[in-house]
Amino acid sequence: MTLTVYLHPMSSFCQKVLIALYESGAAFEPVIVDLGNETSRGDFLKIWPIGKFPVLRDEARDRLVPESSIIIEYLALHHPGRSALMSADAETARDIRLLDRFYDHYVSEPMQKIVGDRLRPAGQRDAFGVAAARAGLNTAYALIDAQMATRTWALGADFTMADCSAAPALFYAEKVQPFRGQYPNIAAYFDRLQQRPSYARVLCEAEPYLKIFPEE
After folding, report:
1. CB of 61 within 8 A of CB of 119?
2. What is the helix, strand, coil percentage profile of the chain, to 5?
3. pLDDT tens-digit readout, 111-126
4. Each residue of 133-153: pLDDT tens digit?
5. Structural domains in the chain, sorted by start
């Protein structure tokens, strides 16, 4: 097998890549990285010293590809499958990248700020930073809810890389800043995402690890 993906099933950015892989049907070998395990972490750092996953290794092309969005575009170019996820049209591709970045930067990042704060020792919490993250999420939610009033998927009729980004971002964001009730179009969109076979599979694989998610 030429494709190896270094990942952890609970990571939102790893889930993003897994959705793309399951959408395309590309064959790959997953290698679960446990950063809390000295041996597992050490082995991974030998491959990618930055120490962040996911990372894809393509043996046939002798390429190491980090970063979730870059991995998905690499797969679309060199290992296309059932679902394109990107577009050959430059304008449409730019719109896909924009929404992909939107979910990564304006949903995933503030969500991670809130989660990270829960892991801080008592007395070292960042209340100001968390408040800013929550305000940012609400701004993002309002924009998403307006967009999804007339769309099936993030960009419209086709499932793309933007939806791969949106699914895990919204899953964890809902846990820290619920959108159901106040943002019905996001809720309906997220329901569709959860029913998508590729994402349903990702959620099933993540389930054993979700118990360690830090609750408030």
Report:
1. no
2. 60, 10, 30
3. 999 999 999 988 899 9
4. 999 999 999 999 999 999 999
5. 3-78 (3.40.30.10), 90-196 (1.20.1050.10)
